[in-house]
Each structure stands twice: as C-alpha cells, then as structure tokens.
C-alpha cells in the first residue's frame, strides 16, 4: 500500500526523503556506533546535529544576527505561557489580537500571570476576517502585542505584518513558519511548534530579538527562563534529541528544495488550486473566510449538504486522502497543505472533490 496524501493539521505529513534518511540512520548515526537518540546530547555527535539544525534554520529563515534561536519543549502552548513570564513585568499589561482559536489559547495561557488586553478581535464574525490595523487599541504601557500569524483551525492568515510601533510584535507562526519569505526584523519574537512545517512534534522554536532578553519579566523557575535556556544553548535539561535531529533533516530538505521563496511559489499554487476547487463548485463546497485573509496552509471547507460529510470522509480515505475532517471547534472539512504536501497531493484532492460533487450534486 503506497503512502496516502496526508492532510493532517499536525502532526503533519513529512517529506518522504526526510523519513528515508531517518530510517537509514535509525540503527546507527554515521559511525557513532549507536542511533542519534541513544547517545548523550552533550557528546560531539549530537552537538554537531544541533548546531547544524540551528545554522540551517537561520539560513532558511534569514534570521538576523541580533536574534537568538531557542529550541524548546512543551509545544507552542508552553511558549504561550512562557512569553508573559519572560517579557512582561509584574502588573504590566500585554495586548492580544484574537483572530481564532489559537489566539484565544495564547491569551488564556497568559491570564494567570499578567493583565491581558484584547487589542482587537474578529469574534463577531466567527473569525472569518482580521480586524483592520487602524481599529486596534493597545493598553497603556503594553509589554507586547501578540498575534497568530496563521489560525490553523479557522483558516485565517495575516497577509501583511502589522505595524505596532514601539511595542514588540510577538507572533505565533506554528502553522505557517517557512511557508514564504518573512522579514523577522519586524518582530520581537517569532515562535512555532515544529509539527507542521518544521518537523515532528516534541520541539518548538523561538526566535527572539536579543534586547528583549534583557527584560526582567516575572519570578520564574530557571527552566522557564529564556535567558537561561539561551546561555545553556537550549540544553538546560535533556533536550528532545530525536525531534531536534528530525527538524534539522527537514530544514535541510527545505533548503535543498530551493528555500522559502520556492515554497512560497508552491504554496501559492496549491492554495489557488484548492480554493478554486471550492469556489468553482457552484456552492457544493464553501469556504467562509474573507478571501484576502484566507490561509495558504489550512483550508477549512463545508459541504452544502452536511448529510454527505460521512460519505465524503469515507470515500476520500478510500481514495488515499487522509485526515480531512475539520476541527471539532468548527466542524466541516479541513485540508492542511504545508510545505511537505506536494502539488500532486492537492491536485488529487481537487480531483476527488470535483468527482464527489458531480456524483452527489
Ligand atoms: N498555535 C497554533 C497556530 C497551532 O496550530 C497550534 C497547534 N495546532 C498551537 C498553537 C498549539 O501547539 P502545541 O500543540 O504544540 O502546543
């Protein structure tokens, strides 16, 4: 049975060459005499893997030198809890722009430790848009403004970087990092869980402007301190070595394929193909997000006749198209089409959708 086209939102499909390299190195990494997951993270072999991963990531994302790169555990949600601890002083407010489920989650993680303030929200239209920048209102003495660059569940993506003036912009790029060129210098912090565009779940990346690391933040354990983590080269405790290694392979694969400019072109073509399959279906399928902010990575869609959902899922799975069920928070269907999803996979999905609509329309 060949591998299916996997549209899972995360953990998500990984490039086959990356999986094959990992497979070939599983029993023994180079001439280490053991697999990379069986040896010390402080030994020369893993130190080489870790340094190569960071260097490749810096190249892929054009990370400026005045930004630190941290590799952390606990997923993007843990970052959301650590950000207020590290970057807001006791009693200081911070702003959140809520454009979907993950923005709400980010704010919830901050609520126990700071006074969160909603600068803008698209809740009134069920997160189908992004509030215009000139409607945002910041708290006085705000520590930062947090946005979710791409809302994985609601399928809404910022297409411009908002200007927040002197207030550092912190962005959750979990589901769109490395999908196109990005000017990191416009951000205070860019962070992402790995399990969509960067590798397997179990490791996250935080790209932090170094001057922000001078902020005192809140009382916190050393392990939750970005400065301590940076000093320890993200190895204050045992890091997730397998995930770090896999991330490195995946980032190198993206570089070999042509880097973020090439993925931007592929992703634009894939998204155009899928949205036109939806928009051209005469209403059989629909996507409700404002076209200007439709996500290029996560495409939620609904069937006009909800009673057909079960058949759509069963038949798509039988046709080798996996994980198209929408998130329970919004229902319907969703196709996640990250960097590792080839154009052929999206074409197969568009063809299936057209055929299903013809048979059931
Ligand atoms: N932010 C976004 C945009 C996400 O898509 C996700 C996970 N799907 C998260 C945060 C939470 O990530 P994690 O499960 O790694 O904590």
UniProtKB/TrEMBL annotation:
UniProt remark on cofactor binding: Binds 1 pyridoxal phosphate per subunit.
Keyword set includes Lyase: no
Metal-binding found in the keyword field: no
Coiled coil: none
In-chain residues carrying the UniProt-annotated modification N6-(pyridoxal phosphate)lysine: 196
Pfam families (alphabetical): Aminotran_5
Broad class of where this protein is predominantly found: cytoplasm
Class in the EC hierarchy, top level: transferase
Signal sequence segment: none
Protein location: Cytoplasm
Binding site for L-glutamate: 42
GO CC term (a single one): cytoplasm
GO biological process, one term: pyridoxine biosynthetic process
Cofactor(s) named in the record: pyridoxal 5'-phosphate
Subunit structure: Homodimer.
Function description: Catalyzes the reversible conversion of 3-phosphohydroxypyruvate to phosphoserine and of 3-hydroxy-2-oxo-4-phosphonooxybutanoate to phosphohydroxythreonine.
This protein's name: Phosphoserine aminotransferase
